[in-house]
Amino acid sequence: AECNFESGPRNDELQHYKPENATVRDGYLIITAKKEDAGGKKYTSARLTTQNKRTFQYGRVDIRALMPKGQGLFPALWMLGAAHGTVRWPKCGEIDIMETIGGGERDNVCYGTLHWDRGGHVYLGGNVALPAGRLLGDEFHVFSIIWTPQEITWYLDDVRYYAMDITPAEMSA
Questions:
Q1: Residue 153 Ramachandran class (φ > 0 left, ψ -120 to 50 alpha, else beta)
Q2: What is the reported pTM?
Q3: CB pairs under 8 A, 24+ apart, for 7-11?
Q4: Tens of pLDDT along 9-38?
Q5: Cα–Cα 20 to 30 A to 50, which of 6, 18, 41, 63?
Q6: 149 Cβ partners below 8 Å, 6+ apart?
């Protein structure tokens, strides 16, 4: 999908976003985090968005990616609801297809989470860990969701690790 570079602070992050930290080489999107001063921050990285490029409800999303390793890194592949421009987060909803919390033993755990508003921020999710000695940054993995009117199911390398009922009664619980 065609992407836009996005800048500006978000979530009290420690990095400043620079477009040159995102490159495409040999058909791969490469996002590089660097220890360098920029924009009042001590690190730089890149953030891309496909907002207003495509809107959909239900289906399957697969993302093949190689995760970075290391303390302080928090890579994520996620989607916001189409109403994000008018109702903001978390009312617009968020589906985290995958996220990791970098550093040591955590570099082998993949999380899938839903965020929404019920008079305040609510979230539920699950996770899966690779076998001991294997890290998400050792090789490419496929992170997926299948979204139906009844549930969202998360997969790592086509193996189901979490499912959540998204019928109205469950979402208001």
A1: beta
A2: 0.88
A3: 7/47, 10/47
A4: 566 778 888 989 999 999 999 999 899 999
A5: 41
A6: 58, 166, 167
